[in-house]
Design a protein that fits this description.
By secondary structure, the chain is α/β, with parallel strands linked by helices. The protein has one domain: Rossmann fold (3-Layer(aba) Sandwich), CATH 3.40.50.620. It is built from six helices and eleven strands. It has a nine-stranded mixed sheet, sandwiched between helices. Strands 2-3 form a two-stranded antiparallel ribbon. A hairpin with a 4-residue loop joins strand 7 and strand 8. Helix 2 packs antiparallel against helix 5. The protein starts with a strand and ends in a 5-residue tail after the last helix.
């Protein structure tokens, strides 16, 4: 059984970020920190759990992006994946989900994977589209927000439970090959082991050179991004204690907090 786990490199949310002058993405500097998308960590862990119960499973991790994404691919290897695949895309900044999905599908379609796993979304754009779009390009069944799965390789089917709104769960049976987007909380992602870290540092990655060409019939254009709008303002009260108290009471009355 062959499993492909799609992982993304994202900017650390704890970093202090600045926008490019054109307002279309963040500025990348030598001090900008990147890491594996947390949602994809659950997808990788689910693949590793499947392998633990099925010894004949091979896990590949794949990521699309510039040269720096090799680090996140090696992180996947250090967690226990067998092979790392780098689909080289030298473009920096925002890349539409359809373009990423097309490149993933072009590669996966030639490799005969039984199961493809992705995180439910990416932390930076939170669009939840790459997984379903990849399945559509491959013409294979797809289930999203999966919280439980059970594989029957004899009959080549997978039974999954998908999280829905209002706490409801939908159970569906898909034929293999299939693609699942994994919801957080389905498992507990593991830390890399020392032996796997050593192996990851010395293991050669499979590099796929692909050209990213715009599709004029379905072109997504990012107009701009901006900092979050301020949700509240600060009012500084001045004067004596009595004057500040009167001002505060007036504010409470105006906001209908006091009658």
């Amino acid at each position: 059984m062959k499993i492909l786990v799609c992982i993304k490199q994202v900017v650390c949310s704890e970093s202090s970020l600045k926008l490019n002058p054109d307002g279309k993405w963040i500025q990348e500097t030598d001090s900008t920190e990147f890491r594996m998308n947390r949602f994809d960590e659950y997808a990788l862990e689910e693949a590793l759990l499947i392998k633990e119960t099925n010894p004949n499973v091979t896990i590949d991790v794949v990521s699309v992006g510039p040269d720096r994404v090799k680090e996140v691919i090696k992180k996947g290897l250090s967690k226990g994946a067998d092979n790392g695949v780098h689909i080289l895309n030298e473009e920096l900044g925002y890349c539409p989900p359809r373009k990423i999905a097309q490149q993933l599908a072009d590669y996966a379609g030639k490799q005969s994977y039984d199961l493809i796993l992705t995180g439910v979304m990416a932390e930076d754009d939170m669009l939840c589209q790459v997984g379903p779009m990849t399945a559509a390009f491959l013409s294979i069944p797809c289930a999203v927000s999966v919280v439980k799965e059970e594989i029957d390789m004899l009959n080549r089917i997978i039974t999954v439970q998908s999280e829905m709104e209002s706490g409801k769960v939908e159970e569906v049976v898909l034929s293999l090959p299939a693609l699942l987007t994994i919801q957080t909380g389905i498992n507990q992602p593991r830390y890399p082991s020392l032996s796997n870290i050593v192996r990851a540092n010395s293991q050669e990655l499979i590099v796929v050179q692909e050209s990213f060409q715009d599709d004029p019939t379905d072109k997504v254009l990012l107009l701009s991004i901006d900092y979050p709008a301020k949700s509240s303002t600060i009012c500084i009260l001045e004067g004596s204690a009595e004057e500040k108290a009167e001002q505060l009471l007036t504010i409470f009355h105006n906001k209908s907090l006091l009658k």
